[in-house]
């Protein structure tokens, strides 16, 4: 992806209530990135551009025309990921969706909350700009991936995550995007098999048209271009971890290789480390 190129799209949700939202997927490593394509559900704008702000200006015009539709904002603090209930909602929503992938996954790891990733997500959300954070702001003990969502009005975290997952309709396992340029990157990151830690945050941006900026970081990062068609291994749920299964998700996994890291999960002790060396910490 060219450093100055952004994939930008503006959509109306399936159940439109007066708010509009923007999302932006992230792919790894450098390489050709598909442009956004028209979705089947009521697109306003979909384009691959080098000047994000030009497109944002167009979006602002549209949003002003819809302004009289916008509902009253709910209590912003209710969305804060400093709250345990919101952390649990985010993790549980992801795990429910990861359990339900079709075809089923034999190596899908159960997700958990990661506080350092959440802190990084908050630091970036506070900047109130719909661009991906630099790699240096997406690092815990490993490099993390990222999904973004920006809206004119508040959405629940479950709705935000579901909007990313809904790109499943553009995806076919083993092939990738069903049509050239179809956007799938949010979906593939949500269901990337070894992105087992997540941290999210939301910021209120009063001086922006899109006032709610949601950021989730996924560790270790997914969306490797070389395997974007297969974000997990197809098979019987927990087929690769029969002795460590939690309702279709793996709680521990002996050795998973992804993006030059080895994920070591040690028996009875949980995740230990992501190493560039092949040495187990167990």
UniProtKB/TrEMBL annotation:
Gene3D superfamilies named among the record's database cross-references: CAP
Xref: SMART domains: SCP
Record family assignment: Belongs to the CRISP family.
Protein name per the record: Cysteine rich secretory protein 2
Cleaved signal peptide residues: 1-18
Domain annotation SCP: ranges: 85-226
UniProtKB keywords: Disulfide bond, Signal
Key word Signal present: yes
Pfam families assigned: CAP
Cellular component GO terms held in the UniProt record: extracellular region
CDD domains: CAP_CRISP
Keyword check for Signal: yes
Record-linked InterPro entries: Allrgn_V5/Tpx1_CS (IPR018244), CAP_dom (IPR014044), CAP_sf (IPR035940), CRISP-related (IPR001283), SCP_CRISP (IPR034117)
